[in-house]
Amino acid sequence: MCNSLINKYNVAGPRYTSYPTVPYWDDTSFSLKKWKESLLLSFDESNTVEGISLYIHLPFCESLCTFCGCNKRITKRHEVEEPYINAVLKEWSLYCEILPGRPKIKELHIGGGTPTFFSSENLERLIKGILRKANLADDYEFSFEGHPNNTTREHLQTLYNLGFSRVSFGVQDYNETVQKAIHRIQPFENVKRATLAAREIGYTSIGHDIIFGLPFQTEAQVAKTIELTKELMPDRIAFYSYAHVPWLKGNGQRGYDESNLPSGDSKRAQYELGKELLSQAGYNEVGMDHFALKTDSLHEAMLVNKLHRNFMGYTDSKTQAMIGLGVSSISDSWYGFSQNVKGIEEYYHLIEQNIIPVYRGHILSTEDLIVRQHILNLMCHFETNWSDPALYVDELKDIVIKLKEMEIDGLVNFENEGIKITQKGQPFVRNVCMAFDVLLQRKQPETRLFSMTV
Ligand SMILES: C[S@@+](CC[C@H](N)C(=O)[O-])C[C@H]1O[C@@H](n2cnc3c(N)ncnc32)[C@H](O)[C@@H]1O
Ligand code: SF4
Asked: I need a labelling partner for 171 at 20 to 30 A (CA). Which of 134, 221, 378, 438 fits?
């Protein structure tokens, strides 16, 4: 890939798991009351038709990986499990009390932190407690994130018996120097054991998370990690660009400094090499950062234009409403977003008082909804179109000027009243989205908020 393009487009930019992006949420016009209203409207429109999605955040991890940007609490005290599950179940009850009908769950995802920090018994109690107050959609999908070092056969079997058919394991990189630098020693044997057990039990989609651009990582190590990954052939691979965001409060990125990270050019070269090796191994790129075998539902969803992106990343089914439970979880009613408090003590305190523990959010304006649609189109299908007057925004002229420059650089092609991102432009999809991000264009952030786009 051309270095001058990387130099030009490698800027700080959002990953667009939402639009507006979290730093642009307008807290001043947001309230818990408005959030509930937007959720009730969405629930009313969509629950009986398609159902809703649930995301449950389980924040505990036994050991800190120093690269990690997730919301987590490090502890070895497993006594924390029970009160936390009680609080999540109570939060679910608070939602069920206000929803005008029995929720129908289409998608349920448990993320973290480390869901497999919890015992199988406690996870079973959590899921059974959630399902006691809900119906299931016919084609429901349950998934969870497992840490290969502590996912047991019992975890996998228990969750499978409860309806889980998808699991993703954090791999990151197999090289010892990299693993030491990120404080995550994780032998291949552990990943193999967890992956094979999941397959034997009957999981239909097994994913591995791999990261490029980690401290001390080289192209040779990325190649080695993919070579080992090929021995296990997971159905999906998230091939993430390491997001270096040490300024975010409490994320713990330390133990190395920027000089230990591969430069923009070598990071891009790692991506290009990884992409090539994954494609040789039979994986197809799905949206940004994701690869899947042809047999995986994410790949099928891409082929039939059903790919969707939300806070959980890419999914193969879209529900209008998604409720996030647990500390720091984000909910999305399509008309609005809300986020739960991040501190566990504060979360418990609000739940005890029967308060839905939301502390900030955003209600989408008509303009937000239009821009959101364009950004979703680009992130999921690498194209968008404004021929429909309902997808017109006032700033279109300025957006087109930016896109024209990207056309000269070979990143996009104009087609009718729309654009298609070219093969060459796909690694720069975040930059193309930024052209549509009118909030970002109107007000550039004063401090560093986002990771680099490349
Ligand atoms: C919650 S963790 C996965 C579950 C489990 N805690 C584990 O570590 O295996 C979710 C994934 O986010 C990705 N991730 C975390 N921090 C990241 C960062 N700074 N940049 C890119 N990806 C990151 C990792 O690939 C990780 O596997
Ligand atoms: S990568 Fe996983 S185990 Fe490590 S700190 Fe982050 S959430 Fe916890």
From this structure: 378
pLDDT at position 37 = 97
Least Cα distance to 316 among 326, 306, 324 occurs for 306
pLDDT at 106: 96
Angstrom CA distances, 248 to 172, 245, 449, 450, stand at: 21, 6, 8, 10
CB of 115 closer than 6 A to ligand 2? Answer: no
The angle that helices 344-352 and 81-98 make with each other, rounded to 10 degrees, is 50
What's the CA gap between 48 and 61, in Å, rounded? 37
State how far the Cα of 271 lies from the Cα of 10, in Å rounded to an integer.
14
- All residue ranges of the chain with pLDDT < 70 are 1-3, 248-254, 445-454
Please state the atom number of ligand 1 nearest to the C-alpha of residue 145: 4
200 backbone dihedrals φ, ψ, rounded to 5° = -60, -40
Query: 139-174: buried (b, 16+ CB within 10 Å) or exposed (e) per residue?
Result: ebbbbbbbbbbbbeeebbbbbbebebbbbbbbbbbb
Q: Compute, in angstroms, the gap from residue 187 CA to the centroid of ligand 2.
A: 16
Atom of ligand 2 nearest to the CA of 252: 5
Q: Ligand 2 test: best mutation among 72, 186, 191, most atoms within 8 Å of CB?
A: 72
Type of residue numbered 140: Y
- What is the Å distance from ligand 2's center to 388 Cα? 43
- pLDDT at site 143: 97
> Tokens at residue 360, please?
């900030």
Helix axes 120-132, 81-98, angle to 10 degrees: 10
Question: Which pLDDT does position 176 carry in this prediction?
Answer: 95
pLDDT at position 142, please?
A: 97
Half-sphere exposure of 191 (CA within 13 A, CB side): 25
| Digit-coded pLDDT (tens) for 28-40 | 989 999 999 999 9
Assess whether the C-beta atom of 215 lies below 6 angstroms from ligand 2. Answer: no
User: Quick one: which H or E segment has residue 144?
Assistant: strand 135-146
Instruction: Give the whole-angstrom CA distance, residue 70 versus residue 58.
Output: 11
Residues 6+ apart with CB under 8 A from 15: 243, 430, 450, 451
Residues with CB under 6 A from ligand 1: 61, 67-70, 111-112, 114, 145, 147, 170, 172, 209, 211, 240, 242-243
Dihedrals φ, ψ of 178, to 5°?
Answer: -65, -45
Query: Torsions phi, psi of 450, nearest 5?
Result: -110, 155
Which is it for the CA torsion 170, 174, 180, 182, positive or negative?
negative
| Burial class for 404, CB neighbours closer than 10 Å (0-12, 13-18, 19+) | middle
- Structural tokens at position 414: 């104009």
